[in-house]
Amino acid sequence: MADTRQKTPPTHFTEREAAEIIREASAHALASREPARTLTREEVLTMAREMGLSEAAVEVALVSRAQKEQHQRKDRKELLGLATHGLSYTIALGGLTLIDLFSGPGWWVHWPALGWGIGLAFHAMGTVMGMARRELKVEDED
């Protein structure tokens, strides 16, 4: 027969577990509020002091958050550049293929497709590797 007794919650937590519990409780509390409001920097510092956190710890977290947001903006910009490059490749090669089809004998469109395709592949590789490098750098800083 299954044990139906309720287990008592643990009474001791590591600092990491406590931080996760506080983070989750904060998320639940904020999700239940309507409408969401913004807090000033001073309100955030006051909340941190009430939780026993130093102003320096909050400043470090704010700087880290700003860096992450900057990396995310850069990633979005690079992905948009790659998507634009891919769309340009597709449209231009489509046009060149049509010209090649209707211009008579001889098949030459594969040469620009190959050359530009190599460039597009390097662009994609650079974008993905740059994003991965930034992600690893952020993880190393945490």
TrEMBL record:
<feature type="transmembrane region" description="Helical">
    <location>
        <begin position="111"/>
        <end position="132"/>
    </location>
</feature>
<feature type="domain" description="2TM">
    <location>
        <begin position="70"/>
        <end position="129"/>
    </location>
</feature>
<keyword id="KW-0812">Transmembrane</keyword>
<dbReference type="InterPro" id="IPR025698">
    <property type="entry name" value="2TM_dom"/>
</dbReference>
<keyword id="KW-0472">Membrane</keyword>
<feature type="transmembrane region" description="Helical">
    <location>
        <begin position="79"/>
        <end position="99"/>
    </location>
</feature>
<dbReference type="Pfam" id="PF13239">
    <property type="entry name" value="2TM"/>
</dbReference>
<protein>
    <submittedName>
        <fullName>2TM domain-containing protein</fullName>
    </submittedName>
</protein>
<keyword id="KW-1133">Transmembrane helix</keyword>
